[in-house]
């Protein structure tokens, strides 16, 4: 299957991406099959669609591996890496969960991310939610939807991890930092694929071989708020060998949180 720029623009427009849109994009380049022009054409198409009044945010996560600097490669896909290097894009300074942003509000969207919990209040995800932006999943499902980690923090689910990381500060010196609110496993987010569909909050299309899903952040928060108020375990996975979700379940039990629900 062969995909070109006009396919990308017309199909993405069909699911609501247009002038003034503010979107968080998670993507897999290989999901399309073959794209004429590769990742740069996907990036150009998105920029053209949202225009000078819109915003595009992509994760450029580096996790806790190595020493972070502003030029560290994104570990979450080819499209994010090309996007990060685009001349019109700026990147937040977060040492584990940085984001790259294009658009009118880019400075405001990344502001102070360094000082915040990666997905906490005041993080770029919080900013996009406040702007009633949308989430776009290109060839990936909700297990890659980073916005759900923000929802975990928004509802103060009583499981959080802490990691120590190193980064290069603005003087080029290596510094240490403790990151609170480091996210856990996201495989349990797979149950959201059906949930969001059933709730009617997803628009979908197919571009080449890639399934593209679009949902509004406000709908996602509203949908999950109804579930999480009764079930703090909902977003955790049930794999027997998942020590992260096992730890998270223990933290919920120890918190006594449920007793007051
Ligand atoms: Zn798990």
UniProtKB/TrEMBL annotation:
Highest taxon, organism lineage = Bacteria
Query: Which Pfam family would be a valid example here?
Result: Antibiotic_NAT
Q: Can you say what this protein is called?
A: Aminoglycoside N(3)-acetyltransferase
- What InterPro entries would the database entry show? Amioglycoside_AcTrfase, Antibiotic_NAT-like
**Any one GO molecular-function label of the UniProt entry:** aminoglycoside 3-N-acetyltransferase activity
As for family, the record states: Belongs to the antibiotic N-acetyltransferase family.
Q: Which reaction does it catalyse?
A: a 2-deoxystreptamine antibiotic + acetyl-CoA = an N(3)-acetyl-2-deoxystreptamine antibiotic + CoA + H(+)
Which EC number applies? 2.3.1.-
Keywords (A to Z) from UniProt: Acyltransferase, Antibiotic resistance, Transferase
